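note to self — DONT lose this again. spent like an hour looking for the file last time. sequence + predicted structure for the chain T wanted, 744 res
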Amino acid sequence: MYISDTLSRATTPPQRTDTLYQREMVCSMQQEQGDTAAIQQADYLNVSSQHLTKIRTHTEEDVCLQTLKSVVLERWPGHKEETPVAVRDYWAMRDEISAQDGVLFRSQRVIIPKAMRPEMLRRIHYNHVGGEACYRQARDTLYWPGMQGEVKDYVQKCSVCNEYAHEQQKETMMSHPLPTRPWQLVSMDLYSYAAQNFLLLVDQYSDFWEIDLLPDLSADTTIRRCKAQFARYGVPDRAISDGGGQFAGGEFRAFAREWGFVHVMSSPRHPKANGKVESAVKIVKSLCRRADRAKEDPWRAILHWRNTPTEGMHCSPAQRLMSRRLRTLLPVADQLLVPQVVMGVPDKLKMKHQAAKLTYDRSAKDLPELNVGQPIRMKPLPGDRTGRWRRGVCLQQLGLRSYLVGVEGTTYRRNRVDLRPAEAALLQPSVLPESAPEQPASGGSAREVVGVPEESPRPSPPGSSRSSPQTGDTPCRIIRLSEGFHDRYPVEDYLDLFDQAANQIQGNLTANASGSPSQPNIIIGEASASTMWDNNAWMYFYDNTTKGEPPFLIQDFVHALQPDARFIIMLRDPVERLYSDYLYFGIANKSAEDFHEKVSESLQLIEGCLLEYTMRSCVYNTTVNNAMPVRLQVGLYIVYLMDWLTVFNREQILVLRLEDHASNRKYTMHKVFDFLKLGPLTKEIESEITRSPASNTRRPADKNLGPMLPITKEILRAFYTPFNEKLAKVLRNDSFLWENNSKL
């Protein structure tokens, strides 16, 4: 017999296999499991029975959640790799997931089926707070994999939140190159004080500034004041200003070229970009305000400020600029007034700049660059009490953090901190009908040109068939652009305009069939000066889903209704047409010089667009077109003609020149009759058509403006010539080069 002690391995085996304690534990666990199973978590959800039924129904239809439910009920595998791929995202929280009454839970949170997640996102964002706040609200009650990221993405795409967003955080400090000698880098700005206007120039090497009273705010007066300062201190290498009218015009550009300095303009409404002059303006106003309050001479205060050593520099602005101290009303030794060059100024400026940048950048972060064509929202303008960040598009990057944007038909130059990427605009369901099978055009496939994927069916253009059934109760609609995108009217109202003509045509056809005398040949036509190129509505239908190129244009709509239609296109020399177009519109202060300025600005805009996008994208870019002061894009005939030729056969299009029609209408009308297969043009009809002389005259108010400037014509001719050459090649007619044409 062995008796084991407490530490022995040979312990006495238990006499009974189950003790009273063990039996009690088993009973307790069974009771606990039973109580747990009896708990219905749905009873503790603050949700209506209708909504709970909806969650249950979508859960049953969700393949992923049904797989998860099977795994939960049958027991999780021992390893993640053995778990079905669809539910591996739930592996980390497998011990928390349960299924009750057709609904899945993670602890006390409902697992939302995929079909209901968009609705849940909308509910989460009802109060339009930030992404973090929305997620904090939802994470205690809802769950699905990746919910936090989806909530933040949804908030970022909310148009209301983006429209009333707060200011963006500041970016890191970015300075102009530090000067190495006096008056090398000069900043300038205009300011007002005591109901008077002044021009201030400050030297960034010495911080020495000069002020001039301006009798008016014209560019000529500003330039004359600058010339006086440059004659006194020398011409700077670089002059920095904002984009005010005095500095942004052609006069100041000519002044910069003539005097040989580089003019750099900062973004408007962003004073930090020209911080040196803004700081100098504050100092000047402070000195003048205090002198006025003390009833002292402000020039004496300015004299003493210029002679005061700058903190950390151990020398005054006057010493750094003139290498000498200024004599003031304070007693001073003659030796101190002897000129002496101050050494080490560039090094001290560098150290001062580095210290300022280090402090400033602690709470700053650079924003990502914007791309040309990218939708943006612009910070509200001064005085705009609505606080709305208006939607627009980026047209061009003018410099580091400086962009040219188009917003609601107006062009602005803004700093990156005043621009934020816009959310993608959602297509309106009432605008686009359901997709229909492709209807190939007889003249070739437009898909090859616009890049529509082969596997994508080509939808019918909106409103392409009056008798086509509508989806639901919403009629097919077209857009009234003059009143904005939200003001639409049914396409049936537009088609009703043709009812009277259709009835007359039907009557003629009926009379002709019955043997009554009637005109045997009926030509149904419509004349418009813009049908060939005016496609401004395409972006409202397709937005940014086509990488900037419209998938369907006017010709696709026409082909859907009249695939056998014939077209007569009359083109004019694009150079002369542009000047005539400029004179046609009733704008103020028209002149050949103003036309030249507008042409230069338009060329800059379209060339900036071409740096990032194709010619076709830029031609159909409505924001770029609206931003251009003159309609430069209309004269790019070859771009529009090629789009028409992808839908209609070449035999269905007759292209004429306006110059030929003006000089010999009989010739062009014979071509028209042959093209329309109307038979030979008789002498009687020819005489009737040519009875009234053709006219293309200017308004009386525009007759004294004269022709465009020779330099303008030269610039436009150089721009349009490559496109005219392609047009002449396609039409096999060199007269469309417009090399020797008299002005109409």
